[in-house]
Amino acid sequence: MKSIEQPQINLAKVRVREHVNPLGKKYQEPTPAPDWSSVYGDWSKPLSLDIGCAKGGYILEMAQLQPEWNFLGLEIREPLVHRAIAIQQELHLDNLYYLFCNANNSLTSLLPPAKVQQVTIQFPDPWFKRRQHKRRVVQPELVETLTKILMPGAQILLQSDIQPVSIEMIEYFDAHPRFTNLAGKGQFADYDIYPPHQPTEREQWTIDRGGKVYRGVFTYQ
Ligand SMILES: C[S@@+](CC[C@H](N)C(=O)[O-])C[C@H]1O[C@@H](n2cnc3c(N)ncnc32)[C@H](O)[C@@H]1O
Question: What is the CATH number of the domain that holds 93?
Fold first, then answer.
């Protein structure tokens, strides 16, 4: 296995709000695309999109393990993005970037059609109260919007430690005719289907406490 460099910057030191309401006024303006060919060393590499990347540790590691891919993290809590970019620059990783945006309204302003080959949505905020479910990042509209930026053959990887949240995400992708659940409609993906990966911060936290992770794997055609 390749080695992973650890940054000197302390990820834990960033002070941020615990949750941000993506339906709030402040987050309704779509984020414009940067000049991607100056952001990445080679913009033609396959792109993996991590929606709700928080501190960005998962793609920080994946970018080092899979230099043949570009990784982009989208996060609505801006201070986390500034710190993640500082780390990316410290480690001179030209296949990794982070953007402050609301993933529910910015995907098509950010990315060209048929560009993305992998999407990860991992441990999204559960917003437990029924009246707040509309704040969850995975909505039928997000699934539809993804079809505008995905390349046919792209893979969608979903994880949550909250069973109803995972069931809902799987339901929304199952309901769209262009996505195929590799475990079968309505089913969670076992480890023989879910690809090997570095655990995310929340995944590691869950595993350390003996919790269960509910996963889904879809392909887009
Ligand atoms: C519980 S954290 C999980 C972080 C990470 N994926 C992990 O597995 O450790 C969910 C993250 O999604 C972000 N988020 C929630 N809604 C979002 C949205 N609409 N657009 C972008 N990021 C969002 C939150 O700010 C938070 O950092």
Answer: 3.40.50.150
